[in-house]
Each structure stands twice: as C-alpha cells, then as structure tokens.
Fold this protein.
Amino acid sequence: MTSPSTLESVPKPQARLRLTLDQVYVTAALMLIALRPLLTPIPPHDFWWHMATGRVILETGTIPQNDLFSYTRAGEPFFNQGWLAQLLMALIHRIGGLPLIIVVQALVLALAYGLLLRLCILRTNRIRACVAILLLVTMPLSFDNWTVRPQTYVFPLFAGFLTILTEYRLGSARRLWLLPALMALWVNMHGSFVLGLGLIGIVFAGETIKRWRSASGPRLDVPLIVWGAATAAATLLNPRDIEVLGYVTNLIGSSQVTDLVTEWSPPTIRDINGAIFFLFLIVAALTLIYARTRPNLTDLVLFGAFLWLALGATRNIVWLGFVATPLLAVQATTLLPPPPQRRFQGIPAMNAALIGLLALLLLIGSPWVKPALLPPETGALIAKGTPVAATRALQELPQRPQRLFHAMSYGSYLIWAAPEQKVFIDPRIELYPFEQWRDYILLGQGVDVEALLAKYRIDGMMLSIEEQAPLLEYARAHADVWREVYADEETVVLVRSEE
Amino acid sequence: MRRTHASVLHTVAGLVRNAPLPALIHLYGLIPLAVVAALIALAPTDPHDFWWHLRVGRIVSEAGVPRTNMFAWTVPPDQPFVYAAWLGDWLFYQMYLLCGLQGPVLARNILGTLAFALVLLEAWRRSGSWRLAGLAVFLAGMMTINNLTTRPQNWAWAPFMAYTIILSAYAMRQVGWRALLALPPLMVFWVNAHGSFVLGLALLALYCIGEGTRALLRQPDAPDFRRLAVLAAAALATLAATLVNPIGIDIFAYVVKLLTDPPSQGLVNEWQPPTVRSLAGQAFFLATLFLIAALALGRRRLNLTDTLLLCAFLWLAWSGMRYVVWFGMLAMPMLAQCLARPAPRVAAQRGDLFAAIIALALILGIGALQPPFKSSLNLSDSYRGLFADVPGAPLLYSADTPVGAAAYLRDHPGGRLFNDMAYGSYLIWALPAPQVFVDTRVELYPLALWEDYLALGEARAYRTLIEQYGIDRALLSRSRQAPLVAALAADPSWIVEYEDRYSILYRRVAER
C-alpha cells in the first residue's frame, strides 16, 4: 500500500561516504533550520518565568500550584501546566547555561521540521521539491513562533503525531502505540496537547468518510479507535489529571488572554507575519487550483481545521504550517515533470564542500562563538529589551521598592534574576484579572496616573522607554516625588522619594 | 353551472400553462435572494456615513457640488474637500424629496436586492445551476451583513456587478464587442456616485492582463488578437470616462489620498482587516474556506483570468472589511462554477403554479419589509429597540441617531461643541448651520485632531484639551465615550443640558 520511500532509496551515508546532491539538500535544509534559532537572541517575554519555575521545581522537588512571584496575586492558585518543559529548560540551563538552551532549541526545531520533511518525502518521493517547499513556504510561515519556550519543545511531538497518523493512513499501524506515550509527555509540557487529540479525531473522521464512500474494508478503524482512546486516557497522566482540560478551556476562553496578548489576536495583513500568512494562503489556494490531482480528503479537512485555528490566533499559524506542508508538497509535485531515472547527484567533493560551508556557518552561529563575531542583533544571547543592567541596579539599591511597577516583559526577567523582588505583572496572562491588565495598560499610557499609583501603592517603577513613555514623562515631570536611580537606552528605574 | 365552473378551471389551467411562470428549480435561487433582500431591508442605517451625504445632496441640488469643509469649526471653513460621491448624495436627496426620509432607505433596499439578483444571475450563468447560484447569493449576502447601511456605496453595487458580468461573459465569448459599449457610460455614473469606481478599472486591467496572458500561453478558449484589442480599447475608453467628473483627473489623487490617509486607515473600523472575531468576519472566512475546498475538489477549474481576479480581490478583502462586499459578489459565482457539473444538464424547466405562488409570497414578503409598510408589521420589541424614533421614518435609522439631542441643539444653538464622530454626521443634516468638532468625513481632519478626539473620548488629559480647543458644550455617546461621560459627570464645571438613553449633552459653566 505504501509507495517505496525515497528515503530508503537514498544511499546511506554510512554505506557510502560519497555525498549525493539529495543528501546535501536534506542536510542543508536541517542546517538552515538550525541556523535560525542559533542566530536569534532569546526574547524575555515567555522565557524567564518558565525558567524560574523550572528552577523552583528543581530545587524543591515540587510543582508550584500557587503564585510565588508577584505581590499583586501572591498565593493565588496558578495552574502550572507546562511543568515538565520548565523542568527540562532549567535542567539544560544548569548543565550548559544559555548557550546550551539555544543549542537545544536549534536541535528541537531541526528534529521537528526534519520529521516534517521526512513525512513530505514519504508522501511524494521528491526530495528536492520537498526541501524547497519546506524552506520557501513553511519556514517563513513559522519563524515568528520559534521562541524559546515550552511550546517549541512540543513541536517534535506534533510532528511525531502527524507522522504516525500519516503512516497509519498509508497502511502501517505499527507505530500507533507511540501516540499514548507521546501524549503522556505532551500533556505535561504544553496546553497544545489537545491538538494531538484533534489530529487523531480528524484523521479518524476523514478516513471513516473515505471508507464509507469506497464501501471497502471494515467500516470502523479499530486500531485507531483503540489507540486514540488510549491517547485520550494518557492526557490524564499529569499532576492534575482531568483538571487539565478545564485549564485549557479557561485559557482559550479567557478574555484577557485573547484581547491583550498579541499572539492570541487574529492575523491581519497589516503586519509582516500576517502578510506572510495570507500570502501563504494564496499560494496554497493556487496549488490546490492547478494541481493535477484532487487532494486527499483527510489532508483537506486537516488543512481546513488548522486554517480556522490559525485565523483565530496568530500563535496557531505554526500548527497550520505542519499540517499544510505535506498537502502542498503532494499537490505541488503533481505539477512537476516526473524525475529522471538517474538524477544528477553533483560532484562529491563539491557536495562535501557545501556541507562543510554550512557547518562553518553553524559554528559561527553557535552561542559560544557568535558573541565574538556577530553584531548584537544576531550575536547576543539575550534579546534587546531584557533589563539585565537595570535589574542589577535595582538589586544594588540600599532600600529597594517593595511594590514595583514595570513593563510586562521585565516582570518575566525579574522573576528569574531577582526572585526576591515581587512583580506587579508578568506574561502569565491568565493569572491576573482583566481589571489589573487594563490598569497596567492605562498606567503605561499615562492615564489616571495618580489614582492608579495610589490604588496599587506603587513605590518604584522600572519603565520601558519604548512602551511606557507617557508614564516616564509623568514621572520626570514629578521629579520631587519620583527619583531616577538608573537609566539606559531602554530602561529607567525610579523610586518614590521619602515623603 | 357545473359546466361553467369546469370551463373557468380549464381556462385558468390554460393560462397557468402558458404564462411565464417560475419553475420549482428557480426557487433554489429565489429563496436565498429573498433572504438577503430581507436582511438588507431589516438592517438599520447607522448615522455615521449617511446624514452628511444627504445634506451634501441638498447642497448639490440647490447650489452645485461643494468643494470646501463648510460644517466643522475645527478646520477652516474654506479648507478644500472632495465630495467625490456627489451624484450618490444627490440621488439620495432626490429620493428624500420623493418619499421623505423613507426614500433613501428604500433606494438602498432596491439597489441591494438588484445587486444580489445580479450575483444570482452571474452565478447561474457560470454554473448552470440554480441550487449553486442560490448558495452563492446566500454566502455573498452573509459576508456582507455589516456592510448594509444606507450610504453612497449602495449606488456602486450594481455597476460593479454589471462590470463583472459583462467582462466575464465577454471573456467566455458569450457576448460580443457591443456589450463592452456599456462600460464607459456606466463608468461616468460610477465615478460620480462613489469612490469605488477604481474597482471597475481594476476589473478591466485584470481582465486585460489575464486574457492577454492566456492568449500568450495559447490556452484553450484564449481570446484572439481582435478580441483582446477590443477589450483594451474598452479599457481605454472607460479610463477616459473616469475624467467626466467635477475635478477631472484629480479624482485619482483623491483616491490615492483616501487610501493612504492615516486617520482613515488607522481609526475607521471598516477600513480595518476582517477577523474571525465578528459574525461578518466569520462568514467571510468560512466562505473563503469553502471556496478553497471548492477550488480543490470542484469539478471545474478556474481559468487564469478568474484566478487572477480571485487572488486580487481576496487580498483586497483581507486588507479591509469594507472590501469584503466586493469579494463576495465577485467570488461566490466562481465558487458556484467550481462546484457545478462539467456540462450542466440543460433541461427546459416547466412553469409551476406552486412555484409561482411561493415566488409571489416571497415578493410580497420583501415588499412588506419596505419602508412604507415595515412599521405596521408585528415586529418584536427587541428589534424595534434597534431604531431611533425619527419623525416620518420609523424603524429605519439606528437607535444611536441623536434625534432628540439635535432637536435640543436646534432650539438652543451656540457654543463650541465637542461631539461624537457619528453624531457629527447627523448634526450636519439636522442643524441649520452646523458647526461640529468632527464628523465622518475622516480625511478632512488632520491626524493630530483625531488623536485629540480619541483622547477626549477616553477622558485622557481632557481638561487640557478642552481648554486648548475652547470647548464649552459636549454631545457625547454614552457607549462610545463612556469615560468622558463619567469624567464630566463628576466635574463641577459641567452640567447636563439634555440626555436620553444613548446621548448626553453637557454645557460648561463657571467653576462652582
């Protein structure tokens, strides 16, 4: 039933040391994918607080169930769903610091998209076309979501689900048993585990319709039902068992999450990533129009479902990239002429030189080398906007403010770098009530400043010059009340003067 | 006697057989069309983009096309402003003279129904199926539900569909060059009725590019050189026809300014991209998904020109909600075409008395929803609550039309008024010598003024801004400007002059 995989027909590197051009394509794709995270400094928002929580788990051996880091919600219950990913991140950091975190990020992404590439090749037998589609179509769609955080760690799990289910559709059920095992990991790493169940459900529905229409074979997909049920049961293998579903439902339905967080807002063509997304849709539509065969129904339903998800929130676009790529690869390759029996495989020495060149690029981009060779935009390990020096200055104050107001992303870094300094707010969006988020935004915009400062009894501020300029202007205009104790190009720290 | 009855029945049966009655199959198209027509008739008209146009229509009728601000005190009275939709405004005013305030809404209902009837015909022409044509009309109508208010754009719907049908039929060799003769005169109307006339040019350009490429690629049914030349000549003649307007070639500068105007692009809701967070947005994206599925699985493939049109209008629709209506009208007939059989069964449909009765009932039902009769229907209180009590025009204009506040201001004029943007539009119509802070002529006002307007509405540094502009009266929307309403309520230097459910008018007094 399965067509012979091109992967199997490619000479194994172990068997023949002479690199073929096909192997260069695959290796180069993986190296280029790895290069991007290597060259991207870690943004603060969704990284440091996860690391800090992982550190707590590592040190105490327990998963925190309440807020430990803020003074506005201190002690309030907080569902720490991604504890396993947090633990992993903290562990990696303990072993190799930030450079190892970045290298693991590159490996995780290479693994996830490597699995996707393998899947496309399995479906089409066209290595070079699949590499081109992955690099030119899927990568631009997905870059925006490649930040270091628990979500990235589950990309290989998503790709694994997709691979196993596709192999099953192609006639091989021998890896279905892996689904519950992968789900047991996924449910402890990120809330997107429900997508795994969605994948199983859609594949089951699509294949059932196909069987029903063809009226051949058993009407019920027994192996999929059994392993699908086991996978659903595996979602209970987490510290809060069934409550995890309630957590995901609350998160999706939370108005402060969907209204306030940019990545939860729907994509529009007014920003570059939205424009890339909609351009991708045009390319997808054109491919579907002109392909020489009709698409597989299950592929199309998967595409439709994940497209709807992506239209609802920018953060879901990355999942669409995973499910759409095999469909596009299959449809696009119908437009290509059949490959010749013997394809030109390049000159082995040139192939090796190409791989060597890319390896050199990876070496230059590695976090141990790049700070010395590259400009800060790509050479730094931590992204601009992380208040490292400002936090240090704050810690050195003889009398530190107890109720600090600060930019949201600063909250994430403070939790990690100065855990004794309780924060006003941070990217744990669902922890804080909508009213507090509204006050946070208004205060940053310089609206009702005095009333809001009084409401939260703020005695210090760590302000982002870019995001909170009106409040900074207010504070500087009231220099008798607000004393500036630190300033750099991005951040200003002020403390309230003694009355 | 019995014989007489039998004879009468026989005669009636003969008449029914010979009359041009609709067939049952036509109901598949007529019912969705009636649903869309009903939606149009039921939709309230917001004050935003209607009343100032009606006032301009009156001025055009009495003194010719105006060219300056006239109505706002925040910019100089002689500041130039292009009233590009002067003909649409004038036509609305003629409807007003004819039928009072019910007239413009009646015109909107007729124009909307006509446009969607053309969508139905186009979908049927492309697909040969009334079922699919009905589906196309329904989907196009659903994605337009937030675009049904009365305004000059209504006059552009039918010209757009006429362009679409003529060009598509010409590309499919179903009509000859004579059909293209209709395009330039139609453009003369369109360019004076609404700024969307550029879409007519865009359609022509896309057809020229698409058909030209098809000819170059020697695709099946590609046009020959003569047909291409005729199409290009029609495009040039149409381009020339756009110059027949009061400002000539400057009309293009106006369109460019509008499309790049920061306040319009940044602040006006309908210029924002559609998202799935609104009902109309959901309908639009669902229809888009459905369209992609139809393109992939459909029995027929779109040709290059149609694909080009689809992509261009899809991109346009993604860029702003106000463009979704055009995408729906253009794309849904293509969807019907994709889903249709490769060679539709062409069987003569026999007229059917039952179908005729249903069709008549639909027509009567839609007629009953029109302004002269609508108010006498037994409509629910919640629906009636959507409308303002506009004298002589019940159940037509939305509840946030500040009828009472404007009447009060007419009786108690004076002062430097700060007002809600939509209220500004109504005040321009309702006051004899209106002087508003802002109104929906968005591109008239500089961005800084709009930023101050928004800051005032949110009560940000409002005292400073009030001093800066010398504002001493404020007509506010309770919902849109709630922070300022609350701030003035708590401010002893402001007192309430007038208030109702939706609006509140404050006057500044000496500090108490």
Remarks:
- Residues 403-508 of chain B form one domain.
- Chain B has 24 helices and four strands.
- Chain B has a mean pLDDT of 93.
